Amino acid sequence: MIGNTTWNTTEPARRTLLRGTAAGLASGLLGPAGAAAAAAPHRTGVVARRAGRYEVLALLDARGTFPGTREDQFGGATEEAWRRADRIDPRAAGPDGTWRLSFWCYAVRRPGGRVTLVDTGVGPAGSPASRWAPVPGRLPRVLADAGVRADDVDTVVLTHLHEDHYGWAVDPDGTPLFPDARHVVQRTETASLTPADSALSYVVTPLRAAGLLDEADGPVRLAGGGLRALPTPGHTPGHQSVLVDGGRRRIYITGDVLVHAVQLADPSVAYRFERDEPTARATRTALLSRARAEHALLATAHLNEPFTRT
Questions:
Q1: What are the Cα distances from residue 287, in Å, to 37, 103, 175?
Q2: How far, in Å, CA of 299 to CA of 264, rounded?
Q3: Which of 281, 286, 289 is nearest to 309 (CA)?
Q4: How far is CA 55 from CA 52, 220, 302, in A?
Q5: Separation between Cα atoms, residue 15 and residue 9, nearest integer Å
Q6: Eight-state DSSP code of residue 113
Q7: Under 8 Å between Cβ of 201 and 242
Q8: Residue 80 gets which letter from DSSP?
Q9: Angle at 232 between CA 230 and CA 236, to 5 degrees
Q10: Model confidence over 88-124: pLDDT tens digits?
Q11: 186-237: per-residue pLDDT in tens?
């Protein structure tokens, strides 16, 4: 959601924002008891939907409160858009205008039990997201609860290289957690990284060294035939989403094409940390229009209920 690339604000200003809000964020994060209470509708951290022969599992890595207020992040939203957003995702509205969000990853289980994992969450304590996100995440335990072993995963799709989406791809020492999996990322995304980006040192370099990084140029047909990675740029230069085509039902795993229900209520609303707001807006509008026309389900990264419709 937020990473170390250059944003609409300057990089020093962005880092100051994160450092200045870290203490307040930490006080709002969910400890073990709080996490259990907040996750009551999803006690195992797993929510399942089917799309034909594919089982799509939403995996709850973490929940917390974002720094600042929601108006800070979505300044162009109207009161009507906020009212609609509150109906779509009522648990996102925290006290004093704060934004409560979830951090979902997705596993697509194919016939025979092999798995495509989409994003790997905030990661362990010491991951780059530790400066602002509710670490440690729970993804390894939630995968186990879902009956998914590391060696079941043959593909990991990283929608983009922000800290809360690649955290469990490797250990803090750089050891890949899914050593039998190709890790698909768009080449445009890796090319946009600077030497100072934590994504480069933490995840890209170790995966390259292990021979596990698959840098794609455009759409990618994934294992299983009905799974495709589709470029959806704007949030970052090489952002991608995943289409699960089950025939009569399609599910779009959207990554950060939209990060809050207010962008579902009004796709024109920009998020403060979008790299290219006009492109992000066009991408979001097109994807939501396509999903609506196809009666498809959305699998979102940060809404508190993972699956929703347009």
A1: 33, 21, 35
A2: 12
A3: 289
A4: 8, 20, 20
A5: 10
A6: S
A7: no
A8: H
A9: 130
A10: 999 999 999 999 999 999 999 999 999 999 999 999 9
A11: 999 999 999 999 999 999 999 999 999 999 999 999 987 899 999 999 999 9
